[in-house]
Amino acid sequence: FARRLHKTVRKLLPDCEIRFVRSEDGSGKGAAMVTAVAYRLAAQHKARQKILEPLKLSHEQLLEVKERMKIEMEKGLGKETHAEATVKMLPTYVCSTPDGTEKGDFLALDLGGTNFRVLLVRVRNGMRRGVEMHNKIYSIPLEIMQGTGEELFDHIVHCISDFLEYMGMKGVSLPLGFTFSFPCQQNNLDEGILLKWTKGFKATGCEGEDVVGLLKEAIHRREEFDLDVVAVVNDTVGTMMTCGYEDPYCEVGLIIGTGTNACYMEEMRNVELVEGDEGRMCINMEWGAFGDNGCLDDFRTEFDLAVDDLSLNPGKQRFEKMISGMYLGEIVRNILMDFTKRGLLFRGRISERLKTRGIFETKFLSQIESDCLALLQVRSILQHLGLESTCDDSIIVKEVCTVVARRAAQLCGAGMAAVVDKIRENRGLDFLKITVGVDGTLYKLHPHFSNVMHETVKQLSPKCEVTFLQSEDGSGKGAALITAVACRIRDAGQR
Ligand code: ADP
Ligand code: MG
């Protein structure tokens, strides 16, 4: 019987290699085996949940983050406390959002994002109200990013010259807005003293200097054209202005890309670093540094510490390192390594690939979490990373990605809740309707980040109705709009 059975089955399935093994006491031993496997799986599941637990934040914990953000914001704004404050709350000298009457041609520079760009922006008012842009991307070679300041600014001016020629506008002098997305101390709209380089820039002789001065000197060295530098702009402010051009309720800007940062319109009476009590000014929060004084340490996990330790700037930008695109993939990789070391994943085998820093890019988090992706495709993403996985492994990896991205979005939402509630309280309102302009690839492309963040803001600041508006090219268009608003106000003053 057995022989015939085997033969028939093999004949019917020529593509399969089938072995028949005789069981000894299947019902007794089998029951024990089933129990043992279920037991092991349950124990492993429990072990993993225990490790992930500190990454799951409760409503109370998030309220606490919101509260602490508010305290740090006040420290940054206060005259006495500003020097030690970690959330720097930098005045930007941008005091009004566009009103639609702006017009003219403007040049804009965008330095500090993924690319360096030069732009020509045409702003129209009246019936043909709108913004038209032409831009060209230039690379900044590593040796220039990390060379001398003179070389960096000579290179920038060389690119401007090339762009003017490309546009057939050689010799034309236009007002210029400079999007410079690094922390700057401003004492004027057209001045920005670089506090410290971030994002891989290292050019010498720039920290502590006014970047507009450095740009002007380079323009003079070239002796080819002159430019009227009107504004130094942070990319958050550019984002707020771009969305403000479409929606007058937009008084907050938010970036969630390589890094994260936010800005908003604060009452002048609260901006103690700047004279005057009338009206409002946009504040560049530099909120990525939230937590650098240790105030978030009870929320940071061993994985956050590991990522921080091996980063370019250990101990700095602690809030940013829990949220933004440059770090989420690394947090996931560290958790997967820990699971594997404990035998809870990949059958306990740590591959060389898994040990490699940076292999788990944040875009994989988006791919793995995308709802239409079946587990088989998650497996193929892991395979592409050189990680041999079972179906169970893919489920686990997906869960880790979900937990890490969810925490990031919730933390970001808690920070945002602090901002909008502060604006509401500033104005003595029971209810505030406000729009936040948002830019950044993580926010735009991750399948759940934006929803989780919106939901968190709603829960943590129930007295605010917050609309999120995606910005299109905030750093280019925004710089031009800020320049346009400044020119409008300047021209009105001269008349
Ligand atoms: P920047 O912040 O440099 O101005 P972006 O807003 O485009 O530029 O953000 C780039 C960052 O977004 C990358 O460093 C990467 O971490 C992250 N990123 C890229 N693609 C994706 C994606 N598909 N999903 C989530 N994050 C992504
Ligand atoms: Mg950007």
TrEMBL record:
Source species, domain of life: Eukaryota
Membrane association type: Peripheral membrane protein
Gene Ontology CC annotations of this record: cytosol; mitochondrial outer membrane
Entry keyword Transferase: yes
GO molecular function: ATP binding; D-glucose binding; fructokinase activity; glucokinase activity
Pfam families reported in the protein's UniProt record: Hexokinase_1, Hexokinase_2
GO biological process, one term: glucose metabolic process
Domain annotation Hexokinase N-terminal: ranges: 49-245
Keywords of this entry: Acetylation, Allosteric enzyme, ATP-binding, Cytoplasm, Glycolysis, Kinase, Membrane, Mitochondrion, Mitochondrion outer membrane, Nucleotide-binding, Repeat, Transferase
Reaction(s) catalysed by this chain's protein: D-fructose + ATP = D-fructose 6-phosphate + ADP + H(+); a D-hexose + ATP = a D-hexose 6-phosphate + ADP + H(+); D-glucose + ATP = D-glucose 6-phosphate + ADP + H(+)
Record-annotated Hexokinase C-terminal domain positions: 252-485
Protein's recorded name: Phosphotransferase
